Amino acid sequence: MTTSAFDLPERLAPKADPVLIARDERHFAAIAESLRQTIAELSERLDAELRAPGGTGRQAMDRDAEVHRLTGRLGTLRRFGLDLCLGHMVGADDGEPVYIGRLGLTDSTGRRLLLDWRAPAAEPFFAATHADPMGLASRRRYRWSGGRISDYWDEVFTADGLEGHAALDDQSAFIASLGGSRSARMRDVLATIQADQNAVVRADSRGALVVDGGPGTGKTVVALHRSAYLLHSDPRLGHRRGGLLFVGPHQPYLAYVADVLPSLGEEGVRTCTLRDLLPEGAAAQEEADPEVARLKSSADLVRAIEKAVAFYEEPPTVGMTVTTPWSDVRLTADDWAEAFRAPGPGTPHNEARDLIWDELVTILLDKLDGDVPPDLFRRALLHDEELVGALHGAWPLLEAADVVGDLWSVPAYLRLCAPWLGPDDVRRLRRAEAQAWTVSDLPLLDAARQRLGDPDAARRGQRHRAVLDAQRERMAQVVDNLIDAASASGADGDDGEGLVRMLRGQDAAVSLVDESELPTAGRDPLAGPFAHIVVDEAQELTDAEWQMLLSRCPSRSLTIVGDRAQARHGFTESWRERLARVGLDRVDVASLSINYRTPEEVMAEAEPVIRAALPDANVPTSVRGSGVPVVHGAASELESVLDGWLAAHDDGIACVIGAPSFRATPRVRSLTPELSKGLEFDLVVLVDPEAFGAGIEGAVDRYVAMTRATQRLVVLTSGPAD
Fold this sequence. Notes:
Layout: H1 18-51, H2 57-80, E1 85-91, E2 97-101, E3 105-106, E4 112-116, H3 123-127, E5 136-145, E6 148-156, H4 170-178, H5 195-201, E7 208-213, H6 219-233, E8 244-247, H7 251-256, H8 260-263, E9 270-272, H9 290-296, H10 299-310, E10 320-323, E11 328-331, H11 333-340, H12 349-367, H13 374-382, H14 385-394, H15 400-409, H16 411-417, H17 423-429, H18 442-452, H19 457-491, H20 499-503, H21 508-511, E12 532-535, H22 543-550, E13 558-562, H23 575-582, E14 587-592, E15 594-595, H24 600-611, E16 621-622, E17 631-634, H25 638-648, E18 654-657, E19 668-671, E20 681-687, H26 695-706, E21 709-717
Parallel strand pairs: 2-4, 7-13, 7-14, 8-9, 8-12, 12-13, 15-16, 17-21, 18-19, 18-20, 20-21
Antiparallel strand pairs: 1-2, 1-5, 3-4, 5-6, 10-11
Helix pairs in contact: 1-2, 5-6, 10-16, 10-18, 10-22, 11-12, 15-16, 15-18, 18-22, 24-26
């Protein structure tokens, strides 16, 4: 017996009428059969790829890419099943519904069963309104629970579409979906994206787009769906052109949204926090002195890294005599200067030294009388300790940690690199443990790493060339032995097949060496460049931190998501002013003003909190009430509040904010206000919010914490309850 895709509760019995859902049932049966066949075919292809020889070089890369693609597609199909389908739309000129899916799907005959939500033809499903129906007669949206449809809603745009629809209030459909319980991971709300959000999701990728909105306006939803949409629809952002990087504020946030992008059909988006961009970020502490943090937040200090590295790129000003097996050669100060100009603009410091050495070899070889093989001459110069030492002393290989650490421990070096700093600033920036990294150091370390390049690159390059030379020498020996053997056999140097003549060719030994088999270093996957970067909670980024992202996105194609009112350190200027200061001059701003998440009861208490500190805060308007007033009580009631809520609710997630000693459980999180940013919970229990501090930072922390609630807010204080 076939199980129905619909599992409607008793109160929705009228919606279970076969007249209303029979066509859907038939379509879901076709989807189920196509999924079964597709999964079987993909599994067979994946098994075949895994059994096949790995190959080498390009062949191995292509095989790995195909395995990755098949694995991702299978994972998505197995994760969702029928709930790949979001709903359907019916055109005014065509009575046949078009079913919209998280990805596209066809049956064995090529008939389209699901239209990928990112396809241009699917846009009316999300964007149609009564003012602009975009050619639709109606649309239906499903609400899935446990792999079956627990409710559905119809919206009709024409009089002809009224017949045969059970639920015509689309606004209530959307609001009901917002009332659904939260899970540990973000619910995919693709089926209920509204027209204002959809316009942002599908906006052009050129330049920088700011998505500005208060709590609950769907900024994160928009950011995630825009990531998936752009990768699918914009060929300029393909993986071969750098792909897309999604930057979140902290690891709890990334864990929360981890399933959303795969559920939208995209497995290839890299996600990270700013800390993840370099290895020192994992252990970096917050800056203890706010004034030091302010000084390091400047993009000017990041740009001082250029001068800090250039200090180690001055050519010797005194000439020297180089002794070679052929004759002595004079290397002048002008020769040194010419060699130091050899690396082109943008060449990382540590990779440039080999280019300088090559130029020195060329300069000295040109001065030598007679015809000396270049490779032989190069090897001879490598044994000249004075020459090698002079180069290494003038252009040393550098570590980013040493360069930045020296800024904080050698005052004269800091004054040289950042001459605008006053004596008090230099003293304040100095510290005993030069490499005890803080979060504020990360932009400078990142700039140094990019300017220097890999300090081991030159060493690896030398080892690579040494291995290559050794292999070529062995191959040359093999070629000589083969020629000698052919001559000894009486073939007079010719085997009748032209083999010996081929072996005598100048490049024979070289062509016999397979460079693809030589070891190579792995590339940092977060180093960039990326074709597009999406950054959430962007209001918190300092000017220095913006440089970390812009250096990885030369196209300046970004989606910037944030809320000025949620900036812990204040955000008084406009988005355009802030971004122009950090180097972005092509900026569009889209504003979201409707709060889909936070009940009006909660916003009524949260709004005065932020307006007291920021009178012009962009506080969004809630579209729903929960019917549950905000409760105030004593901190001693924390356990009883949680026990009562857990007993009354079989699902959903709660969060305690402001009680560090509270130990989290599977259904109750424990977070600081800062780590709660970007997250949402059915119940939020705020403990001693006044202890969050005074001024703008304290007000923002209280506002952010309060607006995480989607159903209920409880405020507990250690003093008497209000």
